[in-house]
Amino acid sequence: xxxxxxxxxxxxxxxxxxxxxxxxxxxxxxxxxxxxxxxxxxxxxxxxxxxxxxxxxxxxxxxxxxxxxxxxxxxxxxxxxxxxxxxxxxxxxxxxxxxxxxxxxxxxxxxxxxxxxxxxxxxxxxxxxxxxxxxxxxxxxxxxxxxxx
Length: 149
Description:
Strand order of the largest sheet: 2-1-3-5-6-4
Mean pLDDT: 93
Oligomer: single chain
CATH superfamily of the largest domain: Leucine Dehydrogenase, chain A, domain 1
Shape: globular
């Protein structure tokens, strides 16, 4: 019986000086006694993604932030239906097989998070929205608003 390996999760984007994710997740892992760590991978070009993954064999997943939510799509082996419909990925599951082959599955949690947050505020008098922006987060917000009718 093999021991579970220390898992690594992280964030890709550029720049990452605005991100609170590393401290938040590392504190959460520690408080929940989870053998994992969260690392920021500030990559100046999306082409550096596969290098980050290959150089970190315990890397199990990544969050994606600006400017890469749309640019990561060509690197995905598959995407869940919501991410494909939105056209943006902000969560990547890294799947490594016994032969060392790597598959990446893309998800989008922005739409669900926004949808769950805004739904209680929608009523007959407050049922319209204006979306400013065209990036990955804007696409997720658009999808959430469509889901809410």
